[in-house]
Specification:
The protein is 0% helix and 50% strand. With 125 residues, it is mainly beta. The radius of gyration is 13 Å and the shape is globular.
Length: 125
């Protein structure tokens, strides 16, 4: 029922910034928790950040804390990931995910029922 679509992935230089967007459709009650994951080349999918839509509470993985910010649009149907001071190790496919409720860090794949197809972020040194 819920469909997620990521956009905004691009190639950027180390130290630069990029904003990813996730547009959601379908039952809002089924996607009160929105999250970003990433999968580096040859690596496993790891949680990055999550936001609880009803009140905007957020949590972050330690690897991005202080550099990335997750936020929601005015309607709650769009979630953003503002990435700053990007590093080559941030290179990955970034995925948007949704669940009925947040369980907070650590973010695990199995908690999230709905997934987008991902958007590529490449950071060069």
């Amino acid at each position: 029922q819920v469909q997620l679509l990521e956009s905004g992935g691009d190639a950027v230089q180390s130290g630069g910034s990029l904003r990813l967007s996730c547009t959601a459709s379908g039952s809002a009650d089924s996607r009160k928790c929105m999250a970003w994951f990433r999968q580096a080349p040859g690596g496993e999918r790891k949680g990055v950040a999550e936001i609880y839509i009803p009140h905007g509470g957020t949590s972050y993985d330690a690897s991005v804390k202080g550099r990335f910010t997750i936020s929601e649009g005015d309607t709650g149907d769009t979630v953003y990931l503002q990435m700053s001071r990007l590093k080559p190790e941030d290179t990955a496919v970034y995925y948007c995910a949704a669940a009925r409720e947040c369980n907070y860090l650590p973010l695990v794949n199995s908690w999230f029922e709905y997934w987008g197809l991902g958007t590529q972020v490449t950071v060069s040194s």
